[in-house]
Amino acid sequence: MKIVVTSIFVQDQDKALEFYTEKLGFVKKEDVPVGEFRWITLVSPEEQNGTELVLEPNNHPAAKEYQKKIFADGIPATMFGVADINKEYKRLLENGVRFTMEPTKMGELTLAVFDDTCGNLIQIVQK
Q: Membrane-crossing residues (predicted)?
């Protein structure tokens, strides 16, 4: 068994699609109308047949509450792995990404956290 799709709640699918592709560099794989929303998936440019990230609309009250509470508590919604966190941190800063935590060494890991402008904190990590 393997993970093929994971999702993240977003407040606005268009804004999220723009942020995740233009600022972070993910590649749009699927964009299919589904009622009033869309099935939008993204993949890493380095692994285009790998795990897909769904930009899931947070229109359900439980999703909105969950997203709001973990954001307020400073809990990242998900984590992305990077090969060189300092290089990635610099690239993202140059793309206008706002970090809430600079790269910080924690044991064997170095991590940083940024705001995705769509209601989530996202953590990047280098092992």
A: none
Hey, which residues does 78 pair with through a beta bridge?
122
Per-residue pLDDT band for 19 (boundaries 50, 70, 90) equals very high
Q: Who's near 66: CB < 8 A, 6+ residues apart? A: 9
Tokens of 92: 């993202």
C-alpha angle 24-56-62 in degrees, rounded to nearest 5: 125
Residue 35, burial from CB neighbour count under 10 angstroms (0-12, 13-18, 19+) = exposed
Q: Give me the domains of the chain, ranges plus CATH numbers.
A: 5-126 (3.10.180.10)
